[in-house]
Amino acid sequence: MKNIAAVVTFLGLGVLSCQTLHADSDLLDSQSGIINLIVEAEDGVPAPNASIYISDGHKIVDIIKSDESGLATIVLQRGNYLVSATRTQPVMDALDRFASHTAKVAIMPMDTNSVILTLHPLENPIAALSLSTLRKIGVADEVAKYPN
After folding, report:
1. If we measure between CA atoms, which residue out of 70, 72, 145 comes closest to residue 114?
2. pLDDT grade, residue 89 (50/70/90)?
3. Domains of the chain (ranges plus CATH)?
4. Cα distance between residue 121 and residue 96, in whole Å
5. In terms of pTM, does the model score above 0.85?
6. Are 82 and 55 in contact (CB under 8 A)?
7. Are strands 32-41 and 51-55 parallel, antiparallel or unpaired?
């Protein structure tokens, strides 16, 4: 219930901030729209400093970062976009990696969209490689035997 209240609060604040963006003609014109983004961990905790990738389906259009509250806003031209987020977190001598699923967003002129991206842990790619593959790419035998 707490997460729902936070989302409703954010969406309400998003509407308020959109009015501010509408007033600033440099940010929003008759061919652009807004995406308000929330990036969160699986448990609903905001994910600060997550990298958010916006693609038109062929190439990356922009990469932005979420703020300390896991929020970000971007103005885009009319079109269809793919949006996803990633984040790495240092843990001792390794990195924990997280990624969201990809959201499809259609931007219409003067429209506001809200997207919640939930980060999920990714598996260790080294652990999936066989011992022979690790040896082929030059990993020392003693290290290759214990990839975790």
Report:
1. 72
2. confident
3. 2-120 (2.60.40.10)
4. 7
5. no
6. yes
7. unpaired
